[in-house]
Fold:
Amino acid sequence: MKNYMKGRDLAMQENDTQKLDRIQYLTETLNRAAKAYYAEDREIMSNYEYDALYDELAALEEQTGIVLANSPTVRVGYEAVDELPKEHHESPMLSLSKTKDREELQGWLNGNAAVLSWKLDGLTIVLTYRQGRLAKAVTRGDGEIGEVITNNARTFKNLPLQISYQGELILRGEAVISYSDFEALNQGLAEADRYKNPRNLCSGSVRQLNNEITAGRNVQFYAFSLVKAEDVDFHNSRMEQFAFLEKQGFQVVEHYLVDTETILDRVGFFEQKIQHYDIPSDGLVLTYEDIAYGRSLGRTAKFPRDAIAFKWADEIRETTLLEMEWSASRTGLINPVAIFEPVELEGTTVSRASVHNVSIVKGLELGIGDRITVFKANMIIPQIAENLTRSGSLEIPEVCPVCGQPTQIRQMNEVQSLYCTNEKCAAKQIKAFTLFVSRDALNIDGLSEATLEKFIDRGFIHEFADLFELARYRDEITQMEGFGEKSFQNLMDSIETAKKTTLPRLIYGLGITGIGVANAKLLCRHFHYDLEQIRQADEESLSEIEGVGAVLADAIAAYMRDEGNLRALDRLTSELTIETPVEDAAGQTLAGMSFVITGSLNHYENRNELKELIEQRGGKVTGSVTGKTTCLINNDIASNSSKNKKAKELGVAILSEEDFMEQYL
Structure:
C-alpha cells in the first residue's frame, strides 16, 4: 500500500510538471504568434490554431491556478509613480559568508547533505502572495529596508501572478536579465548610452518609476529561497521547498542535492556550464538540506550559518598607479590608499584601494606610474595583487598630511605602520568626533566631518561633552557659511534628541580600539547595562566574555584606566540620559510565554519591532499556532485565515494589538 501511495504521488508530481511545462510552452508560442501578426505583419499560425491553443492555455490555468505574468490571457496595466515607497523587511536579509576554496565547501558540510545552486547576479527580490495572488514585491535594499516594486514585478516575463496555493507565501529570488537580452538591447543604443553589464541594467529596470519600461526589458525571476508558507509540511527538506515552488509555477535556480562525496564533481559541472550559461551568475550557494539543523546554527552579526557562497577565481585587472593618498585616522595611524586609473571589477568601477601599511608599500616596491594588477578581496574590498613595474620610488611622508608634524614608522609583530606623533593632531579629533556622532553611535544629524572640522578649528569642541553645549556659540555658528537660523535649530534639535541614548551606542561612540557595534552590545549585555561595572572590569574578566578575547579586553581596560578618559566620560554622561533596556527595567514579564503575530500592525512599525519588544521581556515569538501558544496577535480577529482557524480549534486566544498591549504590556 505504501509503495502504491508513493507511486501515485510521483505520478501526480510528474503530471503537475507536465502541465506547467505545457503552460510555459503555450504562453511562449502564443506570444510569438501575436508578435508576428501584430508587429511584423506575418502569420505563423491560423486563427483557428491560435484560438485552440489559447483555449487550452486558459483551461490549464484554471486547472492549476497558475497564471504567468506574460500570459496572453492577462494584460498587465502599466502605471507610473512619483517614487518607490520604502519598506522594512520582516527579517533582515543577511549576506552570505564566502569562499573560493572548493575543499572548504567540502569541510563546511561536516558530513551533512546540502543543496548546491547557482548564485545569480541580478537584484534580489522578496515576493509575498496572499490568496493565490501576488500581493507585494520588495527589493533587498540594504538588507533592512527595501523599495516596493510590486507593479514592476507584475511585468517580469516568467513570474506567476496567480498560483494555486492560497495561504500566505513569502519567497526570495533574483531578478535577472539574460546576456542575450542584454546584448540585444545594447545593440539598439549609441555606444555612449550602452549599459556596462546585465546586473546594472536589471537593477535600473526593476526600479523604474514607470513599469512599462520594465516590461520592455525582459526581466526574469528565479526563486532561490522559501521564507514562509503557512501550514505546509516540507518534511524538513530544502529540496521539497524547491519542488513546492516549482509546482506553484515559479522558475527556481538550478539546484542539486550533494554530500561530501559528490560536491566537488557537482562544482565542476557548474564550472563547465557557466562558460555558456545565458543567465549572469557570480558563483554558487550551498545550503544545508536539513532545515531544522541549519536554523539551529543561528547566525553571526553579518551572516547566517546555514549557507555559504562559493565564488569563482578572483577577477584581476591591470591598471596604472596615479598617486598614493595618506589618510590620517583618529588613532594617529596614517593609512596609505592607492589611487589608480579606473577599472571594472566584479560589476563595479573602482579607482582606489587601501594598501594598509608601510610593510605592504615596501613589499610591493610601489612607485607612481607603476603598472599594477588589482582585485577585490572576498569579492568586496579592492586591493593591489601585484606590481608589474616594481620601481620602488614611492617616498614615505615624513610629516603628517593633516597637521604637518613629524611622522614615525612603528613596528608591531613585524608589520611597519606610519603614525602621526602629534597628540593634538586635528585628524585624530575629527575622526573621533565623526564616529561619535555617527548613526550607530549618538546619531546626531547635521554634523558632517567638514562641519566638525570647522567647530574644532574655532575651538567650539575639545571633547565629546562640548557637543551638548554648542548653543553657547549660536551667534558665531549662524554666521558661518552653510549655517543659518533654521539649520542651527535643526542641529540643536538633533543634539537634544541624542541626549537620550543607550549604553551600547555610547560605548561604541567612545571609539575604543576594536570595539564595533556588535562588540559594544555584547559587552553591555554581559555587564547588565551597568557602565560602572564596565569601568571596573579588569582584563581577566573581560577576556572571559565570549567574542571579546585578550586583545579587546586589553583595549577596554586600558581605556577605562586612563584618568583623562574617565574625567571626559564623567562629564559626558552628566549630559546624557542612558535608557535601561526593557529586560532590566521591567523584568522578564513574558518569560515562558509564546506568541504568534500575523497581519498588519497599527502601533508598531512592523512585526519585527513588536517581536523584539516581546523577546526583551522574555517571551518567544513563533511562526505557527500550537497548543503552547499564549495568544495570536491579529488585528483582524474575524478573518478566516489559517492562523485564526488554528487558534480557534486549539482554544488559543486571538487578541487585537490594543488588547495584547493592555493585557501583557
